[in-house]
Amino acid sequence: MDRVVSPHSSLINAIYHFVRGTNVKRDRLLQKIDGEVLEFVLQSPHPWIDRSVGEIKLPRGAMISMVLRGDLLKVATGDLQLRVGDRVLLFGLPKAIKNLDELLAD
Fold it and tell me: Which CATH number fits domain 7-104: 3.40.50.300, 3.30.70.1450, 3.40.50.720, 3.40.50.150?
């Protein structure tokens, strides 16, 4: 399979990953969409552990979209309880992501 790699996008994504810390496993800017997708692992202690997605107050413009638990990919419905070790996929507009930096830090 052939893939096109943008050195510019790769560099920006690598810098974002470095800035966000080791807890954020992936951070991607989306082409032609004003937003980012972050993948991070919930590690103890984190305020989202043992809370349902519906209970979590996110900034306007951010949403938890999927949760990878072991080998299971779960849609982030309001009643899904988050656990230690869950890999959370979060979509957010730049302003919303900026307001989440403290929660995403290691």
Answer: 3.30.70.1450
DSSP letter for 67, please: E
Phi, psi of 38 (to 5 degrees): -110, 140
In whole angstroms, give the CA distance from residue 55 to residue 42. Answer: 16
Residue 37 and residue 89 in contact, taking contact as beta carbons nearer than 8 Å: yes
Q: What is the bridge-based pairing of β-strands 62-69 and 36-41?
A: unpaired
Q: What pTM value is reported for the model?
A: 0.65
Query: What are the residues whose beta carbons fall under 8 Å from the beta carbon of 100, sequence distance 6 or more?
Result: 58, 59, 62, 90, 92
Question: Is a pLDDT exceeding 80 seen at residue 3?
Answer: no
Tokens of 26: 């992936």
